[in-house]
Amino acid sequence: MRRASERRSGDGVPDARTRARDWAEVQERMLVPLYEAVYARLDVGPGTHLLGLGCGSGLALLMAAARGARVTGVEGDGRWRELARERLLPHEGAGPADPVRRWRPDPDSDPGTRRGRVRLLPTVPDAVPGDVPVNLITVFDELPALAEPERALAHAARLAERGSAVVLGGWGPPERCATERVVRVAARTAGQVLQAPATDPFRLVGPDELERIALRAGLEPDGSGRVACPFAYPDVDSAVRGLWSTGLLDAAVRATGAARVRKELVGALRCFRRADGGVRLDNVFRYAVARVP
């Protein structure tokens, strides 16, 4: 959902670093209900060692750490990993409401990342950092970006204890996701099919698609859930920043240019504007829980 293109152009496309910031500042919080629902269902807390694949700018990790969990985040893009490090490391000037300041993990040394209880890595390690077994693996929004999701999951699952939960997240039914409709309208009106089926970010919306991925990875499905995740923005400009940061419109931009796609996106958002000038896109996200056999 949030893979920003490396392309920089002169027609208004933000560069990759700006888009990563837009994701962290505007968009990522929209998935908080999904993170909260999963963590509550699985009772994430001090006994949890979470391995987050595609952890992005780290908000899901921060929320698990605030519950007392030990977390290891895997993020291949150094820009996103740096944003996660900024969130997870103590820093001067954090406000009193910042959860980074409220959370105080154990003092064990861990150079370059949060001390002891947090690690940020570019790839899935060959062994569990610190020899603390993983007992929860999450892939909240990166499945469509993985060329071979089953292989990635199987590779990560070998680090987990038997019976550990593996959570796969994704979009819910298209008719319940206003964002999906807006993005497709903007792309289609701009004269471009959103993406090829193999890389369509919305391709995993089938009722049992997440479970099928888990089965092909050698995991055992163990339930699922749906969570309302409204995308609410204070104004149209914020909505454009947030949606642009997801990478959902990259194919259309490459085909027709940013100016035209932006125009169509603003038009598609018009019917979702509220009386106060804000924009609200109601969505349902789905997650599936599987177990390591």
Automatic annotation (TrEMBL):
Source species of the chain: Wenjunlia vitaminophila
Entry's Gene Ontology molecular function annotations: methyltransferase activity
Taxonomic classification: Bacteria, Bacillati, Actinomycetota, Actinomycetes, Kitasatosporales
Protein name: Methyltransferase type 11
Organism domain of life: Bacteria
Keyword Transferase: yes
Example GO biological process: methylation
Signal peptide interval: none
Record keywords: Methyltransferase, Transferase
Keyword hit for Methyltransferase: yes
Region ranges (Disordered): 86-117
Coiled-coil stretches: none
Basic and acidic residues composition bias: residue spans: 99-113
